[in-house]
Amino acid sequence: MAENKFFKDIDDSLERYQQELCEFLRIPSVSAYSENSDAMRCSAEWLLGRLLDIGFHGDLIETNGWPIMLARHEHRKEAPTLLIYGHYDVQPEVPLEEWKTPPFEPSIRNGAIFARGANDDKGQLYTYVKALESYQRVRGELPLNIIFLAEGEEEIGSKNLLRFLKENGDKLRSDIFFVSDSSMLSKDIPAVTCGFRGIVSFEIALQTMKKDLHSGLFGGIALNATEVITTLLAKMKNEDGHITIPGFYDDVRPLSSRECEAMAHLPYDEAAVAKSLGMAMLHGEKGCSAIEKKSARPTLNINGIWGGFTGEGPKTVIPARAFAKISSRLVPNQSPEKVFRCFENFIRENIPTGVETDIRFLFGATPVVTEIDDPNVRMAAEAIEEAFGKAPAFIRSGGTIHIISEIKDSLKIPSMLILGWGRPENGSHSPNECFYVKDFRNAIRSLCLLFDKIASNGQDK
Amino acid sequence: MAENKFFKDIDDSLERYQQELCEFLRIPSVSAYSENSDAMRCSAEWLLGRLLDIGFHGDLIETNGWPIMLARHEHRKEAPTLLIYGHYDVQPEVPLEEWKTPPFEPSIRNGAIFARGANDDKGQLYTYVKALESYQRVRGELPLNIIFLAEGEEEIGSKNLLRFLKENGDKLRSDIFFVSDSSMLSKDIPAVTCGFRGIVSFEIALQTMKKDLHSGLFGGIALNATEVITTLLAKMKNEDGHITIPGFYDDVRPLSSRECEAMAHLPYDEAAVAKSLGMAMLHGEKGCSAIEKKSARPTLNINGIWGGFTGEGPKTVIPARAFAKISSRLVPNQSPEKVFRCFENFIRENIPTGVETDIRFLFGATPVVTEIDDPNVRMAAEAIEEAFGKAPAFIRSGGTIHIISEIKDSLKIPSMLILGWGRPENGSHSPNECFYVKDFRNAIRSLCLLFDKIASNGQDK
Question: Considering the entire predicted model, what is its pTM?
Answer without folding.
Answer: 0.85
